[in-house]
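Batch manifest, entry 17 of 40.
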Amino acid sequence: MSDAPHIVSHADLQDFIKRGFAASGLSDHDAGKVAQLMSQADLIGQDGHGVFRMSQYIKRLQAGGMNPSPVFKTLEDRAATALVDGDNGLGHLVMQHATELAMKKAETTGVAWVGVRNSNHAGPASLYAMMPLKKDMIGLYVAVASANHMPPWGGTEQLLGTNPIAVALPSGKNPPIVLDMATTVAAYGKVKTAKQRGETMPEGWMIDKLGQALTDPQKSSEGFLLPIGGPKGYGLALIFGILAGTLNGAAFGRNVVDFNADATTKTNTGQFIIALDIKAFADPEVFRAGIDQLWDEMKSSPRLPGVEEIRIPGERMDAIRAERAASGIPIAAALKAELDTLAAALDIRPL
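Output type: structure tokens
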């Protein structure tokens, strides 16, 4: 088998994902929604959260760990807030529903916060933070990670996950500013993709239980991820987990189910999305012009020796999107083989 990546168009990848989930019990409509969001993750370079996760999601569906036909319920509903029960559906479906609800509320209230319980892994955080952009809104998304890979600062018991945050802000002539980051130095999806590709990890991603650097992803179970900024990253992971998990009646701490190792237990994943209508504070065109000005100021500011370019959060993601839209999405050889096996098991046409 060649190690060269398989290049596939965005449309073909989306079609393959849709057929796979339709064959796994989702309605054609829901399979299409999941496929659109998952393939979007690959299009923008979030390779650890796109089709890479397809086999894992379908394994959970087949094992009864996720509900293929969820019925969402709004448990608490106020003018600017809501709490949604995702009925153990795929996180992509739950979070699209929650984000649309937040945007609808924000049109009236100016800002809306929608919390979620009984959800599942939903792919990259940026997907949901960017949705409000189409309504001249700012999006902010936080989630409890679907597995614990980090202890509290100074400890060894893994009670925290990567607990990501994403914020998206529109601009005028430039791409939107999109901050999408884990509260750990690296997202665990990057560890998994390095493991599948036979790559090593940089020092600083993980340490073992003796505090030594861990660079072999094959041994990742023997150590844990490190937080960004030391105790500050630990503090962010803790607070984000409380707001997205504990506040919503979702899992956090020892209650988090490792969906990498357990395909049958409900994860009760917690998330929240905030939609903020720019019109409640400023004229959207004036705001976007201000973002453009800040963009130019950052990009044109003096650089340290050896630094070729100052980049803005979301800039690289937009460049990858443009490149892959034109030239195709690379699928690693090991992942392509896994997807071929999945296609045969589902009796669908391979990618």
